[in-house]
């Protein structure tokens, strides 16, 4: 399939490509597009045949539901009940990196919700995404625009890498600002439960209802007894080709341990990468591939650069990535959640 690629520099001058992409959506095709979290792979969320094409292009398991993207807060036609807390939460955090789960109406096809009776809805803040949804005149179902299992793309080049030839249209914009996927908050249960941590943090949501909590299953390795409530959280995910080991805890011990391990791997002729921060870059020798995610004092920078760093290590062909851990607080919860999944929970506490 020929993929049309159109990169928007200035939304006001390039409006034509949004219209073009919207006409692809209306005709049941698939379009990759920017959002503030990560790039999405979108189709008409109310058209089962269109939605099926997303699963095919991504190689996504059929039992993993999609979320739908809307351009306003009027959800009456899509969901059954809107609890009063939902209005407060939408007013505070929409548009933005927060997906809300509601009981769905029958208008949402079963392929979209993977046969669940609930649906995730998000109003993104990215201007191109909003205009695309508006022009399409339908909610856009969209998972992250990566091949299933790979780290989510945060810029258009990574979308092209994964999806050129597989979909009709790639709409490019600027780099994604948040860098990790949206927080998912289940409002079909009481108290509301966070199914995936993201840019809207637990601490921020607790200001609205202090009973809100994180699904305990998602910070742990999958086991038989507790399964995460978001189906997608059970898969190995965000994974580059290289193996990842996280070293977490006391700063000096972390650096010492990484240096130790490094030497060991190098002696065994492995190509090693270190994923560090601006503050610690100077401690590692230049015999290894080093990527800094930014300053430890700015967790939003760390989150923004995380997936791109994982993909860059693959480009460099490293066999193993040694990654420094972060404190599981605020945005650090989302960062560690993605890191742990990428590392298949190989984590060394020091
Ligand atoms: O930031 C984002 O959310 C991005 C951008 C493109 O909007 N989208 C995204 O979609 O990350 P995806 O499909 O990669 O992740 C959606 C997650 C999956 O883990 C899925 O299992 C879960 O949401 N999910 C979707 N619908 C659900 C539902 N009704 N109940 C529980 N979990 C659900
Ligand atoms: Mg995804």
From TrEMBL:
Coiled coil: none annotated. It is found in: Cytoplasm. L-threonine binds at residues 37, 69, 122, 142, 182. ATP binds at residues 60, 64, 118, 144, 152, 196, 238. Keywords: ATP-binding, Cytoplasm, Nucleotide-binding, Nucleotidyltransferase, Transferase, tRNA processing. One of its GO terms (cellular component) is cytoplasm. Signal peptide: none annotated. Its EC number is 2.7.7.87. It catalyses: L-threonine + hydrogencarbonate + ATP = L-threonylcarbamoyladenylate + diphosphate + H2O. The keyword Nucleotide-binding applies. It comes from the Bacteria. It holds the Pfam family Sua5_yciO_yrdC. InterPro entries: DHBP_synth_RibB-like_a/b_dom (IPR017945), Sua5-like_dom (IPR006070), Sua5/YwlC_C (IPR038385), Sua5_C (IPR005145), T(6)A37_SUA5 (IPR010923), TC-AMP_synthase_SUA5 (IPR050156). GO terms for molecular function: ATP binding; double-stranded RNA binding; L-threonylcarbamoyladenylate synthase; tRNA binding. Belongs to the SUA5 family. This is Threonylcarbamoyl-AMP synthase.
